[in-house]
Amino acid sequence: MIDIFVCEDNAKQMTEIVSYISSYLLMENFDMEIKLATNDPQEILDYLDKNNVNKGLYFLDIDLKTDLNGIELAAKIRQEHFNSKIVFVTTHSEMVFLTFKYQIEALDYILKDFPNEIQKRITAAIVTCNRQFKENESQSEEYYQIKTGNHLRLVKISDILFFESSPVPHKVIVHLINGQFEFYSTVKKIETENKIFFRCHKSYIVNIDNIRSINRHTRELTMIDEEKIPSSVLACRTLVKLVQEGISR
Amino acid sequence: MVNVMMLVFQELFFALNCKIVLNDFRIKYADLFFVLFNMPLAIFSSNLNQSVLVGTILILNIIYLIILTRNIKISIVIGTMVYIIEVITDHLVDIINLLIQKNLPYLIEFIPLSFFMTLILYLVCRKIREKRLNKQFLLSKNEVFLAAGTLILIGGLIIFTETMQGNKLNNIIYNFVILLLITIILITIHFSRIRELRKQFLLTKKETQIKNDNRYINEMEKHYNELRKFRHDYQNILLSLDEYLKTDDISGLKVYYSEAIKPVSSRVLRQKYKLEDLSKIGVKELKSIFFNKLYSAQMIGTEVSFESKNKIDDFCVDTLDLVLAVGIILDNAIEETNGQKNGSIQTGIMNTALEITIIVKNSLRNNDISVWKMKSAGFSTKGANRGLGLNNLTEIINRNDNLMLETMKMDEYFLQKITIGIGEDEE
Fold first, then answer.
1. Contact yes or no for A164/A229 (Cβ under 8 A)
2. Which of B401, B407, B421 is nearest residue A149 as measured by Cβ atoms?
3. What is the number of domains present in chain A?
4. Is A172 left (phi over 0), alpha (psi -120 to 50) or beta?
5. How close does chain A come to B412, measured CA to CA in Å?
6. Is residue A184 located within the same domain as residue A99?
7. Where's the Sensor histidine kinase NatK-like C-terminal domain (chain B) (predicted)?
8. Which of A19, A1, A124, A18 has the alpha carbon at shortest distance from A61?
9. Which of B67, B78, B142, B193 has the most crowded CB, counting CB atoms within 10 A?
């Protein structure tokens, strides 16, 4: 069951949104239900406190005429319910595209400035939300969790090439296939977190699956994106063994 | 024998003082030259006429300095400085000796006095270095001429008044006073020039700041005028609506809505001022760099935007470093988007209780270059000497504990994110 919430301070727009949602839910037989439609963001937070919401879809206005705006509300919802799907319903002048996308990781945003499109966008959001929850349940892809600030970040393990300790203590740089970023952790800690991570050097941890080749003379590992990282003598020997076992297996 | 020892020590102190002024104590080939040529030649010429000796040593020492620094100007100035110090020391020793009327060995007084002078020189040099003067502040053409002139003057003065007439107390005192005066005059000139230059530097900095601010103000005024126009339209619309409602002319209202109101609202939408959120940055330098870079990108046809939901006054990090980092990121974005057909740069700042995030996202031309290649020193698609930016950026990030950098390359865009930790370390 996916619970749907609406928070919108304009009564007329709220009834409109609710009617779009319920009529679509009537038409399609999704396992969804509108739990709460309100103009007070606090009410949603209270509801989440008292009830067990496993999967949620939220339609939020940005300017709520209270001390809590839609973005802050979304951030609060996310803190406790990481997998929540959030859709912003807003006007163009309130648009903060990067914030939606990178701070809240919103599912979508719907512009009120185009009234004819609202219904279409709402149904589209419901369909996407439904599909994403289903995919999450069935997929076997393994993720690595990285906490940055108050943000939990999921990275596909197959995307991780290696970790490198930064010259700054307690900072680690993770190298992905399509980029790199820093976070607070230590090489020592990461080493123990997944058996596919191998400490090949004092300050490097490599994802064994993403090594292209090992040069035993120069003791360099070449990753699948051709970046080279150093390896210690002992680690190099163990790695060759590990990889060979992996192949024979 | 005493003469030779005296020369050796004078030469040694000369070399030591030069090294202090240059702040480079490593042994170099020039020092070998100094030991092999300067010392023996000086000792050899000590048997000759004293006038010849003074001249030879001077020229040899300047040659040593030129080999050491590979710069004639600097050599002349430093040579003069150190030479004046030595001559002053030498004269002081003579004066003391002649005044107390006891013939103490020259070296007993010369060595401690020289050490004292060297120490003063060292302290002064360190003090000047702490002020981190720009290299260009240090020497001007006039100063080099002045130094060369002084050198010749002093050389001549000593040769004609002292060595040719025997070392008389009167002459030595006169020369000492003259030397002191010259030194004081030169130092005064030098420092007043530096002060002047610094004032000028600040002035030009302020001028550019004012110019940038003016540009910002102009943009604001333009925006404000648009707003006024809209308010005017809005009032008219309200009046007309009022009229239609009073007369119950619903069909007329419908026509009016679709013909008059809709176009206005879509115009307002289109004209949303893309940089108005810049007013939410509370740090002037940061606001300035965002505005100027984005404005210049806009001028060459790149679509730009800046967004920030909350007003942020404190970025909890060294402002200069942050501005440098943001500048590098924006420069890269501008360089990449310049020349793209529908290039765009989206920027934004967002904050939570624990961190502030600065995001710059720009559209990307198709290429297969991976992020690590872009980040290595000197890499650039534009040829040599262009790609130091990302490497410098890493350096800036690493010297600030609470800064974190993210670089991602997606299919159609490039994303750079600086995260500033502001809360307690969450461990």
1. yes
2. B421
3. 2
4. beta
5. 12
6. no
7. 319-420
8. A18
9. B78
Closest CA to A215 of A225, A206, A228, A205: A228
Query: Which residue ranges form the domains of chain B, and what is each CATH number?
Result: 2-167 (no CATH), 280-421 (3.30.565.10)
Last residue of a domain, one of A138, A163, A178: A138
Q: Say if A110 falls within a structural domain.
A: yes
Domain that holds residue A46: 2-138
A145 falls within a domain: no
Residue B272 has pLDDT above 60, yes or no: no
B373: nearest CA in chain A? A227
In terms of domains, do A85 and A160 share one?
Answer: no
Query: Which residues 309-368 of chain B have a CB within 8 Å of chain A?
Result: 309, 346-348, 350, 352-355, 357, 359, 361
A209 and A109 in a common domain: no
Q: Which residue of B has its CA nearest to A71?
A: B309
Residues A102/A89, Cβ–Cβ less than 8 Å: no
Interface membership of B426 toward A (CB under 8 Å): yes
Give the closest-approach CA distance of B358 to chain A in angstroms: 10
* Residues in contact with B267: Cβ distance below 8 Å, sequence separation at least 6, in sequence order: none
Residues A170 and A217 both lie in one domain: yes
Interface confidence, given as ipTM, is 0.84
CB contact under 8 A, A92 and B419: no
Kindly state whether B369 is in contact with chain A, defined as any CB-CB distance less than 8 angstroms: no
Alpha-carbon distance of A18 to A14, in angstroms, equals 6
User: From A102, which residue of chain B is nearest by alpha-carbon distance?
Assistant: B359
CB contact under 8 A, B404 and A181: yes
Q: Report the residue of chain A nearest B309, measured CA to CA.
A: A96
